[in-house]
């Protein structure tokens, strides 16, 4: 688990200002796939949290992030006097703090597979990430389909097909929505933006993910964010 002590003054002010002891610091909803993952893990399971958004790629972005984490990246979860960075560490921390919410599958075998695919997503798929960066409001049909991205897409499809068939009962990857669903939600957003051709069952899965209440909330906010940015540039 990756943690660091939070500045006491900042911790006190956050605790006084918010109703929840958890505060999630994220980047732009339209672009920050890593921020989307723990946000969904909290929102989908009705875990109360405060939210701080830092606009990325701005002159003061690094300074703003450094106020919350020495790692210099978002997301960061502020839990009372401790800052936890790294998306997977945040998800694991939340799952441990709220075991009754069932963020991981209850079955041990399913849980092991869910953790495995999240770890694989966490460490891999560089071809897909670089060729098809997340842009929820954007539409780029035909773009980004490099050989490396296509290989990653094939692996994602294999993971989805196996999990839906063995554990998901053709609903979410492990039946109920879980951290695994949150972890692959940004991939589903990429497939929508870049018009990736999928088998009907997998396209239906992407549609179900996009319609999940927590994901739908993120999409609406991302599209509003992108619209504001376009108006500012006009």
Report on the architecture of this protein.
- The chain has ten helices and five strands; from the N terminus they run E-H-E-H-E-H-E-E-H-H-H-H-H-H-H.
- The protein has 234 residues and is α+β, with helices and mostly antiparallel strands.
- The N terminus is likely disordered.
- The radius of gyration is 18 Å and the shape is globular.
- It has a five-stranded mixed sheet, with helices on both faces.
List keywords for this structure.
single chain; 234 residues; alpha+beta; five-stranded mixed sheet; 5 strands; 56% helix; globular; disordered N terminus
Oligomer: single chain
Name the helix and strand elements from N-terminus to C-terminus, one letter apiece: EHEHEHEEHHHHHHH
Helix content: 55-70%
Q: What summary fits the major beta sheet?
A: 5 strands, mixed
Q: Tell me what portion of residues adopts beta-strand conformation.
A: 5-15%
Overall mean pLDDT stands at 91
Report how far apart the termini are: 44 Å
Radius of gyration: 18 Å
